[in-house]
Specification:
Elements: E1 3-14, E2 17-26, E3 31-36, H1 47-55, H2 62-65
Antiparallel strand pairs: 1-2, 2-3
Length: 72
């Protein structure tokens, strides 16, 4: 499966771990939400550039899709 995701400004706690909420879609166009706790960049690539891009977030619609009472 291939997915395309973008970072949002929202965070959630999943099983005691703080996760950033990402939104996106599959190749077939199915909307998805990802709860990502860790993400890394290979040492041979520009880590500073990645960190700058990660700060460029978008507001999320996830709070509508997943009410907080449903998040563990």
């Amino acid at each position: 499966m291939t997915i395309i995701i973008h970072s949002t400004d929202a965070f959630s706690e999943i099983n005691g771990t703080r996760t950033r909420i990402w939104e996106g879609k599959t190749e077939a166009g199915t909307p998805i939400h990802c709860f990502i706790a860790l993400i890394g960049v290979e040492k041979t690539h520009d880590q500073a550039g990645f960190e700058r891009e990660l700060e460029e977030t978008q507001p999320t619609a996830c709070q509508v899709a997943f009410p907080l009472r449903m998040v563990i």
